[in-house]
Amino acid sequence: MSANTFGELFRVTTFGESHGPALGAVIDGCPPGIDIDEAYIQAQLDRRKPGNNRYTTPRREADQVKILSGVFEGKTTGTPIGLVIENTDQRSRDYSDIKDLFRPGHADYTYAHKYGHRDYRGGGRSSARETAMRVAAGAIAQQFLQQQGIQIRAAMTQMGGVAASQLDWQEVHNNPFFFPDASKIDDLDALIRELKKAGDSVGAKIRVEASGVPAGLGEPVFDRLDADLAKALMSINAVKAVSIGDGFAVVEQRGSEHRDEMTPEGFCSNHAGGVLGGISSGQTVTAEIALKPTSSIKLEGKTIDQFGNAQTISTHGRHDPCVGIRAVPIAEAMMALTLIDHWLRQRAQNGHVTTNVPHLK
Amino acid sequence: MSANTFGELFRVTTFGESHGPALGAVIDGCPPGIDIDEAYIQAQLDRRKPGNNRYTTPRREADQVKILSGVFEGKTTGTPIGLVIENTDQRSRDYSDIKDLFRPGHADYTYAHKYGHRDYRGGGRSSARETAMRVAAGAIAQQFLQQQGIQIRAAMTQMGGVAASQLDWQEVHNNPFFFPDASKIDDLDALIRELKKAGDSVGAKIRVEASGVPAGLGEPVFDRLDADLAKALMSINAVKAVSIGDGFAVVEQRGSEHRDEMTPEGFCSNHAGGVLGGISSGQTVTAEIALKPTSSIKLEGKTIDQFGNAQTISTHGRHDPCVGIRAVPIAEAMMALTLIDHWLRQRAQNGHVTTNVPHLK
Amino acid sequence: MSANTFGELFRVTTFGESHGPALGAVIDGCPPGIDIDEAYIQAQLDRRKPGNNRYTTPRREADQVKILSGVFEGKTTGTPIGLVIENTDQRSRDYSDIKDLFRPGHADYTYAHKYGHRDYRGGGRSSARETAMRVAAGAIAQQFLQQQGIQIRAAMTQMGGVAASQLDWQEVHNNPFFFPDASKIDDLDALIRELKKAGDSVGAKIRVEASGVPAGLGEPVFDRLDADLAKALMSINAVKAVSIGDGFAVVEQRGSEHRDEMTPEGFCSNHAGGVLGGISSGQTVTAEIALKPTSSIKLEGKTIDQFGNAQTISTHGRHDPCVGIRAVPIAEAMMALTLIDHWLRQRAQNGHVTTNVPHLK
Amino acid sequence: MSANTFGELFRVTTFGESHGPALGAVIDGCPPGIDIDEAYIQAQLDRRKPGNNRYTTPRREADQVKILSGVFEGKTTGTPIGLVIENTDQRSRDYSDIKDLFRPGHADYTYAHKYGHRDYRGGGRSSARETAMRVAAGAIAQQFLQQQGIQIRAAMTQMGGVAASQLDWQEVHNNPFFFPDASKIDDLDALIRELKKAGDSVGAKIRVEASGVPAGLGEPVFDRLDADLAKALMSINAVKAVSIGDGFAVVEQRGSEHRDEMTPEGFCSNHAGGVLGGISSGQTVTAEIALKPTSSIKLEGKTIDQFGNAQTISTHGRHDPCVGIRAVPIAEAMMALTLIDHWLRQRAQNGHVTTNVPHLK
């Protein structure tokens, strides 16, 4: 039972609360001899961290990761990699205003039922702050995958009613929304301003892709690549839906349209999103996720306190109007952690990972 | 590494291929002393089995389950429950026409890459026939859950362009489509006729719900109830998308709309689908899945053989025009297997499962 | 939580009770393409099965194993291998004499406490009959290991006071005791006669070895090869002690004696039993186990019934005077299951299994 | 695959090398609401730490544990407990003399084969330093178990030829050898002096017991309490044998002697060591382990370097003449980690842990 562990062969266990002394992770099962560039890990963390720009929360966290074990002279040793990030921005603030309140849309109420007590200091373990460790671990996985020719990338393709009309991956690096459509940046900026003014928030859609994935990754019948990816992505805070390939659109498709026909030159289409029967086909693996709007907003709402009394709540803290933005590097990390695990599983069973050939020898 | 096992505490391992002598499952971790009604298991299997009506494949399989261990005098003993269903309808047919072909939309190609060989007799392990064992195991889980006050139900809410306008759970038992809207049965019937004529197929949407779920089920941060449910449902053959609560609609929602406000009388809405921070809230857990259209159709399509040559394929076998119909009891089973596992995990950690009270004592 | 599962990558799950309709096992994670000789599996089962000779219980069980899945045209497919043995010798006997009694030395009392009920038909799940499935699964593992150059063998080296003076592996095949010393067979025969006359039983010691094991198998720090082997062997019914290499003799050894010095020609000795720091050294892996005397004996003993009343018990059934004899093939099986699992783990992490070279390149 | 994780429900994952910046552990699955006394954890660590007295290595390590998460206001929260101990005594020494040598009896050679590289700074991950984290985690488990009425204790009962003649548990606290026989302390002192003079080392035997264990803990058939305990104890550095109850003595016992007869007043003896059929009987659980003599000694020995050349080695560092002494608190910790895991598993399956009643209701 591994509530705080992800993966079977590349196992990432995270710990730490938003208001405790530190966050940490242990990676068990990383192959030895992998070149690790610490600057790359930090760069991925910096993409996720708050206070990066005016569209996200102004909380400043250094998010400086320290490697405590498992890497020697720039290479993994095969022993567990211990990672720690100290929490530096823990203001000794007064929690008395929310101490007894269950914040709607948050995990306060469900954690209280689960554990029988209340950590009133904030999100605690349920805070998205935990995802910093996923990004750090994912950055290690990505270095391994890149050395195998696998590339992962993600973008926010919709925020509220503003949807991207094109998928320009270069543009994703040019704006603070990780948005793949330069023509919509002004609309996004306007929407954020409007939300801040209204004290409200909005949801988002993210697309994540992996190219160069060899055919043959994934296990029948439960640990399918798409099933594990669905779990990985749904485990990101605020995610309410996951789709692979054409997703919900398949409901209205005909078989003659959906099945991806094959020719000696390759597949004619990719409605499947790179996964057939739970196993990668060699095509690009594509997934989309929906993130709900931030629950902590200024607009007053009804709630109860832990004694069952009716109360109202209004949050004036430092919160993103759209949590979806910062989830882009997290989605990449979870795709990476899913793929490296299945890559190693395939190698364990076959001694090699099958190559992306169009036909069997 | 448990490719063919689902669950952590209530572990279901399945085995068997569509054309082998038998299918089977082992349930390890079922609590002792649970009353088991074998007729209930068989009834659930009968809902899934092919040949039930004219809308599904006319293949006839008795799907008669035998309990080999773990049940004594009508009660579980606490030891592993072994289940077997013999394959009785294995025609010794000639496979030579498809022996070398990769069927588009099927797992032929990906399994060949994964395992380095080809089982040309048909779907083999990737066949939906495997899900019979999930339904059998799920029926045992459901008997336990019902004794805890948890009720699970599912319905097909859309097939192709025909969507239910209402959610009439009584109606689900009255038609062969498990459809919750009596006014649309004729449309569904017409659509199936049209598809059969055209030699084509269509996708479907299924809704599955669990009521009576106590607050507190689910684990932070990876083994969230919604994440495990996403994996469970995505692992069903042909599923391409999973959503919880409002699903993809949250992208365009505002925080003031989505957050479910709370009053001493309970939650004011259920946009979250019964899960907050990955943990059940006591509200009804709701999920939807999208199933792709059947890949085996009469309409000719392009493909390759295993030597890489261009070929065409047209399937004349006994296949459902909409695989989504028979997935209704499978979705219920996977919901049940997910919930029983988290129910036991909660009991392991706390010694009890928290009750559905509106506030903490 | 996998009470009835052994292994991480080569996972064996067993089910079935001694008095139920069948025993079974599922092997999940067996690599594809392995040649499987069913006659070899049956031959290993026949070595274990009761009624083989006059020294073991005269119960006759066909122990005919059926492969239900995972093997096609003589090769493993990579999908789970389902195995079943039907129980054919279930006499419909009268259990009323022992129905309420806890048999001393048996699991009756502890199972009753664990599960809160009593299966009065006999050992049930705690019966050594379950080990038939271990032998079947071990025989599949052994075929894989043999193809990798790894050879496993075991012998009973002591029964009661009769200890082998030499380790003649050829002799092991010549006598029904699996004993490696021809000069002691008459003593063993006499001891069995004496025990039968007295209505008593005696313990035994078994030695099991694996040669050709490549250096590098085993994981620090918990899943050491010797730790997993200790668990594997201790899990055999009646085993009370496990030792690796020199075992308890190391308590009185000096470091200068115990450390196995190394030369370019290899190790100078093998006090370590082929494992250093939990990882195989390339030397022969050696282990010994102690098996307690059969608990079911004719000699009357004190016990209680399930109501707490004082009772006496005397067993007149068909029982081995020394359960250790039949444990020889079981010990081989557990060694095989441990080694194949670590072999696959090493391959997963490194992409290859290091060879038995005397020094690193 | 959890090489560096112990346990199924109370999962302890450790990381860190002897010469890296820190050691750490994550405990996942500790129930919420348990009172944690940090001073008790530190006290257990102090019993294990080197430099405690003149009989163990004079290396000084503060072994100051920091709790990074999972404990709030003196109670566990139910979220993962992160623990870190910084390595403070990492002398920047010159390793050139042993850089290329494989030290006989150490894991240098086997790790090199496993990982394909050499961490020449010393034991690294294979160092017994890692066991500090086991002691810290075990101290948390022990606080839980004590609150359930379970008491664990261990003693060194033999060092070389000096064996305890009595088991005086009070005396264990009075001498630096954790020895239960005051009359032998002078002999032990003399033996250590002799070994230091000779530049040699010696083995040891440790006994560990748990009383107050309820009947019913342990799972058939692989995850037996004794099997998991065997693994736990064999995973301690230098352990070469594990026995339960009478251990290897059972080989020469008769069934009439070994089986522990039962009366309404309880068991008449405890040859079984508190475990029947792999499940606790309510009697005291007893185990013994054998630890090999320290491999790093002054006496010159033959070895090879990593190029395969013949070399000699003589260790002049700070090493214990008997590593067994410091293993006493480690054995207690591993007993505690094994028991808490099975205690929680029993509670998961039954909703309660059966009480130590002499007969079933």
Automatic annotation (TrEMBL), chains A, B, C, D:
SUPFAM superfamilies the UniProt entry points to: Chorismate synthase, AroC (SSF103263)
Cofactor binding mode and count: Reduced FMN (FMNH(2)).
Alphabetically ordered keywords of this record: Amino-acid biosynthesis, Aromatic amino acid biosynthesis, FAD, Flavoprotein, FMN, Lyase, NADP
InterPro entries documented for this protein: Chorismate_synth, Chorismate_synth_AroC_sf, Chorismate_synthase_CS
Binding site for FMN: R125, S126, S127, N237, A238, G277, K292, P293, T294, S295, S296, R318
GO biological process: amino acid biosynthetic process; aromatic amino acid family biosynthetic process; chorismate biosynthetic process
Gene3D superfamilies, alphabetized: Chorismate synthase AroC
Record field: catalytic activity: 5-O-(1-carboxyvinyl)-3-phosphoshikimate = chorismate + phosphate
A cellular component annotation (GO) from this entry: cytosol
Keyword Lyase belongs to the record: yes
Catalytic EC class: lyase
Pathways involved: Metabolic intermediate biosynthesis; chorismate biosynthesis; chorismate from D-erythrose 4-phosphate and phosphoenolpyruvate: step 7/7
GO molecular function, one term: chorismate synthase activity
CDD domains: Chorismate_synthase
Cofactor: FMNH2
Protein EC: 4.2.3.5
Family that this chain belongs to: Belongs to the chorismate synthase family.
Job of this protein: This reaction introduces a second double bond into the aromatic ring system.
Subunit (UniProt): Homotetramer.
NCBIfam families from the UniProt entry: aroC, PRK05382.1
HAMAP family linked: Chorismate_synth
Name under which the protein is recorded: Chorismate synthase
